[in-house]
Amino acid sequence: MIRTNNYQLPKIENLIVPESTFDKYEIEHVGVEPILFQTGYLTIKEVIRKEFIFYKLYYPNLEVKQSLLDYLFASYIGKKPGEEIVTIVKLKNYLIEEKIDEFFKTIKGIISGIPYEILVNKEDYYNSLIYTILSLVGIECNFELMTNIGRLDCALELRDKVYIFEFKLNSTGQQGIKQIKEKKYYEKYLNSKKLYIVGVSIDTKIKNIKNWKYEILT
How far apart (Å, rounded) are the C-alpha atoms in residues 161 and 156? Predict the structure, then answer.
């Protein structure tokens, strides 16, 4: 349901839903959030009481998060859960070693192996796929972060460096870099660690990453 309905997985990181989300269930129109809640993949992290009641939902623990994302990743790429674990470890090492080109070449290889009937030519599909990959890498990731003038796609923090990613559909990696700079998504990370800003272009014609650009900010 998550994959076929093109659900935006990154929004799980900051998911706030109204009380009415859980008022009633109609099997023909049930949403993703109630199912994830009822099955235990999401739990109530915070109750927000204003004029109306809202719930902030999140994974109950890291093990549940990893389990869900492992199954989702397998669904997105048409493999059995756990089959790509070696590749995931490689991706993590590429980020640690700052081998950004190797990192994206590997992701391109993953996408190239996805069965044609699974691929969806929508930005949310690719964002969700990359979200599962980055989450499974096991490095602290922040997705869909709000700033005072926009929302950055992903900030990935390591001990001594930070990667800021901006994904663009049918555009260029350079446009992603331009947006990061114009919106100043990097400001909160300046003067703390080595900072990479990365623009990634996803092309729906080739159904894969087309190009990427990156810069180091000091």
Answer: 9
